[in-house]
Amino acid sequence: MIKFDHVTKRYPASDDVLKNVSMNIDAGEFVFVTGHSGAGKSTLLKLIAAIERPTSGTVLIANQNISKLSESAIPFMRRRFGLIFQDHKLLYDRNCFENVILPLHINGITGLDAAKRVRAALDKVGLLNKEKAMPITLSGGEQQRLAIARAVVSRPSVLIADEPTGNLDASYATDIMSIFQAFNQVGVTVIMATHDALNRYAMEKRVLHLDHGVLNQSEQK
Amino acid sequence: MNTHIQALKLVLARMRQKMLSTFMISLVIAVALCIPALFYIGVNHLATFSNQLQSETEMSIFLKLDTDQTAINALKESLANNEAIKSVKFVSKEEAWQQLKAKVETNDLEKNPLPDAFFIQSKSAEPAALEALKSSLSELPNVEQVLLNTEWVKRLSALLALGKQIILLVAGLLAVALLVIISNTVRMQIVTQKDEIIVSKLMGATNGFIRTPFLYAGMLYGLFGGILAILMLISMMWLFNLSIAQISSLYHSDFSLPIYDNALFIKIILFAIAIGWLGSYLAVTRAISSIKIN
User: Fold this and answer.
1) Do A103 and B203 touch (CB under 8 A)?
2) pTM for this predicted structure
Protein backbone atom coordinates (compact mmCIF):
# COMPACT_ATOMS: atom_id res chain seq x y z
CA MET A 1 0.00 0.00 0.00
CA ILE A 2 2.73 2.46 1.04
CA LYS A 3 6.26 1.78 -0.14
CA PHE A 4 9.42 3.84 0.44
CA ASP A 5 12.45 2.97 -1.66
CA HIS A 6 15.76 4.64 -0.70
CA VAL A 7 14.00 7.86 0.18
CA THR A 8 16.05 10.88 1.19
CA LYS A 9 14.52 14.22 2.12
CA ARG A 10 16.50 17.39 2.46
CA TYR A 11 15.11 20.88 3.09
CA PRO A 12 16.95 23.86 1.67
CA ALA A 13 19.88 24.85 3.90
CA SER A 14 19.66 21.85 6.20
CA ASP A 15 21.07 18.37 6.61
CA ASP A 16 19.19 15.34 5.37
CA VAL A 17 16.07 14.96 7.48
CA LEU A 18 15.50 11.43 6.20
CA LYS A 19 18.42 9.30 5.05
CA ASN A 20 17.95 6.44 2.64
CA VAL A 21 14.69 5.19 4.13
CA SER A 22 13.14 2.02 2.73
CA MET A 23 10.02 0.50 4.21
CA ASN A 24 6.65 -0.96 3.46
CA ILE A 25 3.26 -0.54 5.11
CA ASP A 26 0.47 -2.91 4.19
CA ALA A 27 -3.21 -2.07 4.08
CA GLY A 28 -4.88 -2.56 7.46
CA GLU A 29 -1.70 -2.26 9.50
CA PHE A 30 -1.30 -0.23 12.69
CA VAL A 31 2.18 1.26 12.64
CA PHE A 32 3.95 3.50 15.11
CA VAL A 33 6.65 5.91 14.07
CA THR A 34 8.89 6.78 17.01
CA GLY A 35 12.04 8.77 17.63
CA HIS A 36 13.28 11.84 19.44
CA SER A 37 11.99 15.21 18.32
CA GLY A 38 13.65 16.25 15.10
CA ALA A 39 14.31 12.64 14.11
CA GLY A 40 12.18 13.07 10.98
CA LYS A 41 8.85 11.59 12.13
CA SER A 42 6.75 14.46 10.81
CA THR A 43 8.65 14.53 7.54
CA LEU A 44 8.03 10.82 7.06
CA LEU A 45 4.29 11.35 7.59
CA LYS A 46 4.26 14.34 5.21
CA LEU A 47 5.89 12.21 2.52
CA ILE A 48 3.23 9.54 3.01
CA ALA A 49 0.41 12.11 2.80
CA ALA A 50 1.83 13.66 -0.38
CA ILE A 51 2.39 16.97 1.40
CA GLU A 52 6.11 16.76 0.64
CA ARG A 53 7.99 15.12 -2.19
CA PRO A 54 11.23 13.18 -1.68
CA THR A 55 14.55 14.76 -2.63
CA SER A 56 15.64 11.37 -3.97
CA GLY A 57 14.26 7.84 -3.98
CA THR A 58 10.65 6.90 -4.66
CA VAL A 59 7.50 7.00 -2.58
CA LEU A 60 4.77 4.72 -3.90
CA ILE A 61 1.24 5.07 -2.59
CA ALA A 62 -1.29 2.61 -3.98
CA ASN A 63 1.26 1.94 -6.72
CA GLN A 64 1.49 5.59 -7.72
CA ASN A 65 4.78 7.42 -7.66
CA ILE A 66 4.27 10.63 -5.66
CA SER A 67 7.19 12.37 -7.39
CA LYS A 68 5.59 11.84 -10.75
CA LEU A 69 2.08 12.95 -9.85
CA SER A 70 1.00 16.20 -11.46
CA GLU A 71 0.16 19.17 -9.27
CA SER A 72 -3.52 18.78 -10.11
CA ALA A 73 -3.58 15.09 -9.16
CA ILE A 74 -2.10 15.66 -5.69
CA PRO A 75 -5.37 16.82 -4.05
CA PHE A 76 -7.10 13.61 -5.12
CA MET A 77 -4.24 11.53 -3.73
CA ARG A 78 -4.54 13.38 -0.40
CA ARG A 79 -8.19 12.45 -0.09
CA ARG A 80 -7.14 8.86 0.62
CA PHE A 81 -5.75 10.04 3.92
CA GLY A 82 -7.29 11.32 7.11
CA LEU A 83 -4.83 13.63 8.81
CA ILE A 84 -4.66 14.34 12.53
CA PHE A 85 -2.23 16.85 13.96
CA GLN A 86 -0.87 17.52 17.41
CA ASP A 87 -2.25 21.09 17.25
CA HIS A 88 -5.61 19.81 15.88
CA LYS A 89 -5.75 22.47 13.14
CA LEU A 90 -9.43 22.99 13.85
CA LEU A 91 -11.16 26.06 12.45
CA TYR A 92 -12.28 28.21 15.35
CA ASP A 93 -14.64 30.45 13.39
CA ARG A 94 -17.25 27.69 13.02
CA ASN A 95 -18.94 25.08 15.18
CA CYS A 96 -18.11 21.39 15.49
CA PHE A 97 -20.58 20.29 12.86
CA GLU A 98 -19.20 22.76 10.33
CA ASN A 99 -15.63 21.70 11.09
CA VAL A 100 -16.39 18.07 10.40
CA ILE A 101 -18.38 18.69 7.23
CA LEU A 102 -15.49 20.49 5.49
CA PRO A 103 -13.80 17.34 4.08
CA LEU A 104 -17.17 16.20 2.71
CA HIS A 105 -17.64 19.51 0.90
CA ILE A 106 -14.15 19.14 -0.50
CA ASN A 107 -15.21 15.72 -1.78
CA GLY A 108 -18.33 17.25 -3.30
CA ILE A 109 -20.73 15.66 -0.80
CA THR A 110 -23.44 18.01 0.44
CA GLY A 111 -26.95 18.04 1.80
CA LEU A 112 -28.63 15.39 3.94
CA ASP A 113 -26.15 12.67 3.07
CA ALA A 114 -23.30 14.84 4.34
CA ALA A 115 -25.18 15.76 7.53
CA LYS A 116 -25.81 12.06 8.29
CA ARG A 117 -22.16 11.20 7.87
CA VAL A 118 -21.06 14.12 10.05
CA ARG A 119 -23.33 12.95 12.86
CA ALA A 120 -22.10 9.38 12.49
CA ALA A 121 -18.49 10.56 12.76
CA LEU A 122 -19.27 12.77 15.78
CA ASP A 123 -21.06 9.83 17.37
CA LYS A 124 -18.02 7.58 16.93
CA VAL A 125 -15.82 9.97 18.91
CA GLY A 126 -18.55 10.70 21.50
CA LEU A 127 -19.24 14.31 20.54
CA LEU A 128 -22.72 13.97 19.08
CA ASN A 129 -24.19 16.24 21.75
CA LYS A 130 -21.63 18.95 20.96
CA GLU A 131 -22.36 19.49 17.27
CA LYS A 132 -23.45 23.10 17.77
CA ALA A 133 -20.60 23.94 20.18
CA MET A 134 -17.67 26.06 19.09
CA PRO A 135 -14.35 24.18 19.21
CA ILE A 136 -12.82 26.76 21.58
CA THR A 137 -15.30 25.70 24.28
CA LEU A 138 -14.12 22.06 24.15
CA SER A 139 -11.43 20.51 26.34
CA GLY A 140 -8.11 19.49 24.79
CA GLY A 141 -9.17 15.84 24.58
CA GLU A 142 -12.51 16.77 23.02
CA GLN A 143 -10.78 18.98 20.46
CA GLN A 144 -8.54 16.10 19.45
CA ARG A 145 -11.57 13.83 19.16
CA LEU A 146 -13.24 16.43 16.99
CA ALA A 147 -10.13 16.44 14.79
CA ILE A 148 -10.40 12.66 14.53
CA ALA A 149 -14.06 12.91 13.54
CA ARG A 150 -13.06 15.35 10.81
CA ALA A 151 -10.30 13.00 9.65
CA VAL A 152 -12.55 9.95 9.37
CA VAL A 153 -15.76 11.51 8.06
CA SER A 154 -14.79 11.08 4.43
CA ARG A 155 -13.92 7.42 5.14
CA PRO A 156 -10.23 7.50 4.18
CA SER A 157 -8.39 4.19 3.92
CA VAL A 158 -5.41 5.52 5.87
CA LEU A 159 -5.33 7.56 9.07
CA ILE A 160 -2.14 9.50 9.67
CA ALA A 161 -1.73 10.99 13.14
CA ASP A 162 1.19 13.16 14.15
CA GLU A 163 1.58 13.03 17.95
CA PRO A 164 -2.19 13.02 18.49
CA THR A 165 -1.83 12.57 22.25
CA GLY A 166 1.20 14.79 22.69
CA ASN A 167 -0.59 17.52 24.62
CA LEU A 168 -3.09 15.35 26.48
CA ASP A 169 -3.04 13.83 29.91
CA ALA A 170 -3.02 10.06 30.32
CA SER A 171 -6.75 9.39 30.58
CA TYR A 172 -7.54 11.44 27.46
CA ALA A 173 -4.65 9.73 25.67
CA THR A 174 -6.05 6.29 26.44
CA ASP A 175 -9.40 7.45 25.11
CA ILE A 176 -7.87 8.59 21.84
CA MET A 177 -5.83 5.42 21.46
CA SER A 178 -8.89 3.23 21.83
CA ILE A 179 -10.65 5.24 19.11
CA PHE A 180 -7.74 4.60 16.74
CA GLN A 181 -7.80 0.92 17.74
CA ALA A 182 -11.46 0.74 16.82
CA PHE A 183 -10.86 2.20 13.36
CA ASN A 184 -7.96 -0.17 12.78
CA GLN A 185 -10.17 -3.10 13.65
CA VAL A 186 -12.57 -2.24 10.84
CA GLY A 187 -9.72 -2.22 8.33
CA VAL A 188 -8.36 1.31 8.35
CA THR A 189 -4.59 1.59 8.11
CA VAL A 190 -3.29 3.70 10.99
CA ILE A 191 0.11 5.37 11.02
CA MET A 192 0.91 7.25 14.20
CA ALA A 193 3.96 9.24 15.12
CA THR A 194 4.80 9.54 18.80
CA HIS A 195 7.79 10.28 20.99
CA ASP A 196 5.95 8.88 23.96
CA ALA A 197 6.62 5.18 24.49
CA LEU A 198 3.66 4.94 26.85
CA ASN A 199 1.28 5.20 23.95
CA ARG A 200 1.98 1.71 22.83
CA TYR A 201 2.10 0.15 26.27
CA ALA A 202 -0.78 -2.19 25.79
CA MET A 203 -0.36 -2.86 22.14
CA GLU A 204 1.82 -5.10 20.17
CA LYS A 205 2.34 -3.17 17.01
CA ARG A 206 5.03 -2.66 14.47
CA VAL A 207 7.36 0.23 15.22
CA LEU A 208 9.35 2.31 12.76
CA HIS A 209 12.04 3.96 14.83
CA LEU A 210 13.85 6.96 13.42
CA ASP A 211 17.21 8.11 14.73
CA HIS A 212 18.53 11.31 13.14
CA GLY A 213 16.76 10.47 9.92
CA VAL A 214 17.91 6.86 9.77
CA LEU A 215 15.19 4.22 9.96
CA ASN A 216 15.72 1.21 12.19
CA GLN A 217 13.48 -1.22 10.44
CA SER A 218 11.29 -2.63 13.07
CA GLU A 219 10.56 -6.13 14.10
CA GLN A 220 7.02 -7.41 14.43
CA LYS A 221 6.63 -7.93 18.13
CA MET B 1 -23.10 22.56 -9.05
CA ASN B 2 -23.53 21.66 -5.38
CA THR B 3 -20.08 23.03 -4.72
CA HIS B 4 -21.11 26.35 -6.23
CA ILE B 5 -24.29 26.61 -4.17
CA GLN B 6 -22.27 25.66 -1.11
CA ALA B 7 -19.66 28.34 -1.86
CA LEU B 8 -22.32 30.97 -2.49
CA LYS B 9 -24.08 30.13 0.79
CA LEU B 10 -20.78 30.36 2.64
CA VAL B 11 -19.93 33.73 1.15
CA LEU B 12 -23.39 35.16 1.83
CA ALA B 13 -23.24 33.96 5.43
CA ARG B 14 -19.85 35.62 5.86
CA MET B 15 -21.10 38.84 4.32
CA ARG B 16 -24.10 38.83 6.62
CA GLN B 17 -21.72 38.50 9.56
CA LYS B 18 -19.77 41.53 8.37
CA MET B 19 -22.68 43.57 7.10
CA LEU B 20 -21.08 46.96 7.73
CA SER B 21 -17.79 46.31 5.98
CA THR B 22 -19.59 44.66 3.07
CA PHE B 23 -21.76 47.75 2.78
CA MET B 24 -18.72 50.04 2.92
CA ILE B 25 -16.94 48.20 0.13
CA SER B 26 -20.10 48.19 -1.97
CA LEU B 27 -20.44 51.91 -1.33
CA VAL B 28 -16.90 52.62 -2.53
CA ILE B 29 -17.59 50.59 -5.66
CA ALA B 30 -20.90 52.37 -6.15
CA VAL B 31 -19.33 55.83 -5.96
CA ALA B 32 -16.60 54.83 -8.39
CA LEU B 33 -19.27 53.58 -10.80
CA CYS B 34 -21.51 56.59 -10.30
CA ILE B 35 -19.04 59.26 -11.37
CA PRO B 36 -18.52 58.18 -14.99
CA ALA B 37 -22.15 57.05 -15.28
CA LEU B 38 -23.42 60.46 -14.24
CA PHE B 39 -21.16 62.21 -16.75
CA TYR B 40 -22.27 59.75 -19.37
CA ILE B 41 -25.95 60.42 -18.75
CA GLY B 42 -25.40 64.17 -18.86
CA VAL B 43 -23.31 64.23 -22.00
CA ASN B 44 -25.44 61.64 -23.72
CA HIS B 45 -28.61 63.56 -23.10
CA LEU B 46 -27.11 66.86 -24.20
CA ALA B 47 -25.91 65.10 -27.34
CA THR B 48 -29.37 63.90 -28.36
CA PHE B 49 -30.68 67.33 -27.50
CA SER B 50 -28.10 69.04 -29.69
CA ASN B 51 -28.70 66.62 -32.55
CA GLN B 52 -32.35 67.58 -32.42
CA LEU B 53 -31.44 71.25 -32.52
CA GLN B 54 -28.98 70.77 -35.30
CA SER B 55 -31.66 69.49 -37.63
CA GLU B 56 -33.65 72.65 -37.08
CA THR B 57 -33.32 75.20 -39.83
CA GLU B 58 -34.71 78.28 -38.29
CA MET B 59 -33.13 81.64 -39.04
CA SER B 60 -33.94 84.95 -37.43
CA ILE B 61 -33.85 88.12 -39.52
CA PHE B 62 -33.81 91.33 -37.51
CA LEU B 63 -34.69 94.55 -39.36
CA LYS B 64 -33.30 98.01 -38.83
CA LEU B 65 -35.30 99.98 -36.25
CA ASP B 66 -36.34 102.70 -38.71
CA THR B 67 -37.77 100.33 -41.31
CA ASP B 68 -41.23 101.47 -42.47
CA GLN B 69 -44.29 99.38 -43.29
CA THR B 70 -43.87 99.43 -47.10
CA ALA B 71 -40.32 98.19 -46.83
CA ILE B 72 -41.53 95.44 -44.53
CA ASN B 73 -44.22 94.42 -47.00
CA ALA B 74 -41.69 94.36 -49.83
CA LEU B 75 -39.39 92.18 -47.78
CA LYS B 76 -42.22 89.88 -46.82
CA GLU B 77 -43.04 89.38 -50.46
CA SER B 78 -39.46 88.74 -51.51
CA LEU B 79 -39.02 86.21 -48.70
CA ALA B 80 -42.25 84.46 -49.61
CA ASN B 81 -41.01 84.13 -53.18
CA ASN B 82 -37.58 82.85 -52.20
CA GLU B 83 -37.19 79.27 -53.43
CA ALA B 84 -34.91 78.27 -50.53
CA ILE B 85 -37.40 79.25 -47.85
CA LYS B 86 -40.07 76.92 -46.56
CA SER B 87 -42.04 79.21 -44.27
CA VAL B 88 -41.98 82.79 -43.10
CA LYS B 89 -43.30 84.20 -39.88
CA PHE B 90 -43.38 87.92 -39.19
CA VAL B 91 -43.27 89.29 -35.66
CA SER B 92 -43.71 93.03 -35.46
CA LYS B 93 -41.91 95.09 -32.87
CA GLU B 94 -45.26 95.76 -31.13
CA GLU B 95 -46.11 92.07 -30.85
CA ALA B 96 -42.65 91.26 -29.51
CA TRP B 97 -42.97 94.12 -27.05
CA GLN B 98 -46.33 92.79 -25.79
CA GLN B 99 -44.91 89.28 -25.39
CA LEU B 100 -41.94 90.58 -23.50
CA LYS B 101 -44.13 92.71 -21.25
CA ALA B 102 -46.31 89.72 -20.52
CA LYS B 103 -43.30 87.72 -19.33
CA VAL B 104 -41.12 90.25 -17.64
CA GLU B 105 -41.62 93.38 -15.64
CA THR B 106 -40.55 96.09 -18.04
CA ASN B 107 -41.64 99.24 -16.24
CA ASP B 108 -38.10 100.55 -16.44
CA LEU B 109 -38.28 100.69 -20.20
CA GLU B 110 -40.37 103.49 -21.54
CA LYS B 111 -39.75 102.94 -25.20
CA ASN B 112 -39.92 99.72 -27.20
CA PRO B 113 -36.30 98.74 -27.94
CA LEU B 114 -37.19 95.76 -30.13
CA PRO B 115 -36.86 95.57 -33.91
CA ASP B 116 -39.31 93.97 -36.33
CA ALA B 117 -38.26 90.45 -37.16
CA PHE B 118 -38.87 87.59 -39.57
CA PHE B 119 -38.45 83.99 -38.47
CA ILE B 120 -37.97 81.73 -41.47
CA GLN B 121 -37.47 77.98 -41.99
CA SER B 122 -35.01 76.96 -44.66
CA LYS B 123 -35.95 74.08 -46.97
CA SER B 124 -32.48 72.58 -46.82
CA ALA B 125 -30.76 71.56 -43.64
CA GLU B 126 -27.35 71.41 -45.33
CA PRO B 127 -24.90 73.64 -43.49
CA ALA B 128 -23.53 75.00 -46.78
CA ALA B 129 -27.01 75.86 -48.11
CA LEU B 130 -27.92 77.49 -44.82
CA GLU B 131 -24.73 79.52 -44.96
CA ALA B 132 -25.48 80.69 -48.52
CA LEU B 133 -29.05 81.62 -47.62
CA LYS B 134 -27.84 83.52 -44.61
CA SER B 135 -25.40 85.67 -46.61
CA SER B 136 -27.96 86.38 -49.34
CA LEU B 137 -30.51 87.44 -46.72
CA SER B 138 -27.98 89.71 -45.03
CA GLU B 139 -27.65 91.67 -48.26
CA LEU B 140 -31.36 92.51 -48.47
CA PRO B 141 -32.23 96.16 -47.78
CA ASN B 142 -33.17 97.17 -44.23
CA VAL B 143 -31.80 93.93 -42.75
CA GLU B 144 -29.74 94.62 -39.64
CA GLN B 145 -28.69 91.07 -38.76
CA VAL B 146 -29.36 87.47 -39.72
CA LEU B 147 -28.88 84.80 -37.06
CA LEU B 148 -28.47 81.16 -37.88
CA ASN B 149 -29.69 79.54 -34.68
CA THR B 150 -27.64 76.37 -35.08
CA GLU B 151 -24.16 77.76 -34.86
CA TRP B 152 -23.77 77.39 -31.11
CA VAL B 153 -25.23 73.90 -31.39
CA LYS B 154 -22.37 72.89 -33.64
CA ARG B 155 -19.86 74.15 -31.14
CA LEU B 156 -21.73 72.31 -28.38
CA SER B 157 -21.67 69.00 -30.22
CA ALA B 158 -17.94 69.33 -30.83
CA LEU B 159 -17.50 69.90 -27.10
CA LEU B 160 -19.72 66.91 -26.35
CA ALA B 161 -17.59 64.66 -28.54
CA LEU B 162 -14.59 65.75 -26.49
CA GLY B 163 -16.60 65.14 -23.32
CA LYS B 164 -17.33 61.57 -24.37
CA GLN B 165 -13.64 60.87 -24.80
CA ILE B 166 -12.93 62.29 -21.37
CA ILE B 167 -15.63 60.04 -19.90
CA LEU B 168 -13.98 56.99 -21.44
CA LEU B 169 -10.71 58.03 -19.89
CA VAL B 170 -12.26 58.64 -16.47
CA ALA B 171 -14.15 55.35 -16.65
CA GLY B 172 -10.93 53.53 -17.53
CA LEU B 173 -9.06 55.07 -14.62
CA LEU B 174 -11.87 54.28 -12.19
CA ALA B 175 -12.02 50.70 -13.50
CA VAL B 176 -8.36 50.30 -12.56
CA ALA B 177 -9.10 51.80 -9.14
CA LEU B 178 -12.02 49.38 -8.69
CA LEU B 179 -9.83 46.45 -9.65
CA VAL B 180 -7.31 47.45 -6.99
CA ILE B 181 -9.99 48.02 -4.34
CA ILE B 182 -11.67 44.68 -4.94
CA SER B 183 -8.51 42.65 -5.23
CA ASN B 184 -7.19 44.25 -2.05
CA THR B 185 -10.39 43.46 -0.18
CA VAL B 186 -10.32 39.87 -1.33
CA ARG B 187 -6.64 39.58 -0.46
CA MET B 188 -7.39 40.73 3.06
CA GLN B 189 -10.12 38.10 3.36
CA ILE B 190 -7.70 35.47 2.14
CA VAL B 191 -5.25 36.48 4.86
CA THR B 192 -7.94 36.15 7.54
CA GLN B 193 -8.95 32.77 6.13
CA LYS B 194 -5.44 31.45 5.71
CA ASP B 195 -5.98 28.66 8.28
CA GLU B 196 -9.04 27.46 6.44
CA ILE B 197 -7.17 27.43 3.15
CA ILE B 198 -4.28 25.46 4.63
CA VAL B 199 -6.59 22.92 6.28
CA SER B 200 -8.61 22.53 3.08
CA LYS B 201 -5.45 21.94 1.06
CA LEU B 202 -4.31 19.30 3.55
CA MET B 203 -7.63 17.52 3.12
CA GLY B 204 -7.23 17.41 -0.62
CA ALA B 205 -9.12 20.49 -1.76
CA THR B 206 -8.36 21.49 -5.33
CA ASN B 207 -7.35 25.04 -6.16
CA GLY B 208 -10.74 25.48 -7.79
CA PHE B 209 -12.51 24.58 -4.55
CA ILE B 210 -10.47 27.15 -2.65
CA ARG B 211 -10.84 29.81 -5.32
CA THR B 212 -14.60 29.55 -5.87
CA PRO B 213 -15.88 31.29 -2.70
CA PHE B 214 -13.51 34.22 -3.23
CA LEU B 215 -14.59 34.62 -6.83
CA TYR B 216 -18.21 34.70 -5.68
CA ALA B 217 -17.29 37.27 -3.04
CA GLY B 218 -15.72 39.49 -5.68
CA MET B 219 -18.71 39.15 -8.01
CA LEU B 220 -21.15 39.84 -5.17
CA TYR B 221 -19.25 42.99 -4.21
CA GLY B 222 -19.56 44.06 -7.84
CA LEU B 223 -23.28 43.23 -7.87
CA PHE B 224 -24.02 45.08 -4.62
CA GLY B 225 -21.89 48.02 -5.72
CA GLY B 226 -23.69 48.12 -9.06
CA ILE B 227 -27.15 48.03 -7.48
CA LEU B 228 -26.15 50.75 -5.02
CA ALA B 229 -24.74 52.83 -7.87
CA ILE B 230 -28.03 52.55 -9.75
CA LEU B 231 -30.04 53.59 -6.70
CA MET B 232 -27.73 56.56 -6.28
CA LEU B 233 -28.07 57.49 -9.96
CA ILE B 234 -31.86 57.26 -9.86
CA SER B 235 -32.11 59.48 -6.80
CA MET B 236 -29.61 62.00 -8.19
CA MET B 237 -31.44 62.24 -11.51
CA TRP B 238 -34.75 62.58 -9.72
CA LEU B 239 -33.36 65.47 -7.66
CA PHE B 240 -31.86 67.03 -10.76
CA ASN B 241 -35.14 66.83 -12.65
CA LEU B 242 -36.91 68.39 -9.73
CA SER B 243 -34.66 71.43 -9.72
CA ILE B 244 -34.39 71.67 -13.50
CA ALA B 245 -38.17 71.61 -13.84
CA GLN B 246 -38.43 75.15 -12.50
CA ILE B 247 -35.76 76.48 -14.80
CA SER B 248 -37.10 74.71 -17.88
CA SER B 249 -40.62 75.98 -17.25
CA LEU B 250 -39.19 79.47 -17.50
CA TYR B 251 -37.78 78.59 -20.90
CA HIS B 252 -40.98 76.84 -22.06
CA SER B 253 -38.95 73.66 -22.35
CA ASP B 254 -39.70 70.24 -20.97
CA PHE B 255 -36.05 69.36 -20.62
CA SER B 256 -35.47 66.57 -18.11
CA LEU B 257 -33.19 63.58 -17.71
CA PRO B 258 -34.66 60.12 -18.27
CA ILE B 259 -34.60 58.43 -14.86
CA TYR B 260 -34.75 54.81 -15.93
CA ASP B 261 -32.13 53.92 -18.50
CA ASN B 262 -32.35 50.14 -18.27
CA ALA B 263 -29.70 49.41 -20.89
CA LEU B 264 -27.25 51.59 -18.98
CA PHE B 265 -28.18 49.98 -15.66
CA ILE B 266 -27.60 46.49 -16.99
CA LYS B 267 -24.26 47.58 -18.41
CA ILE B 268 -23.22 49.07 -15.07
CA ILE B 269 -24.09 45.88 -13.19
CA LEU B 270 -22.43 43.55 -15.67
CA PHE B 271 -19.35 45.75 -15.75
CA ALA B 272 -19.16 45.80 -11.94
CA ILE B 273 -19.57 42.02 -11.69
CA ALA B 274 -16.87 41.48 -14.30
CA ILE B 275 -14.47 43.82 -12.49
CA GLY B 276 -15.29 42.05 -9.21
CA TRP B 277 -14.55 38.67 -10.70
CA LEU B 278 -11.30 39.81 -12.28
CA GLY B 279 -10.10 41.59 -9.13
CA SER B 280 -10.67 38.58 -6.90
CA TYR B 281 -9.27 36.18 -9.50
CA LEU B 282 -6.01 38.14 -9.56
CA ALA B 283 -5.85 38.25 -5.75
CA VAL B 284 -6.75 34.61 -5.13
CA THR B 285 -4.48 33.18 -7.81
CA ARG B 286 -1.52 35.03 -6.37
CA ALA B 287 -2.47 34.02 -2.83
CA ILE B 288 -2.99 30.31 -3.56
CA SER B 289 0.49 29.95 -4.96
CA SER B 290 1.98 31.86 -2.02
CA ILE B 291 0.24 29.86 0.74
CA LYS B 292 2.35 26.78 1.36
CA ILE B 293 1.12 23.92 3.49
CA ASN B 294 4.50 22.38 4.24
Assistant:
1) yes
2) 0.73
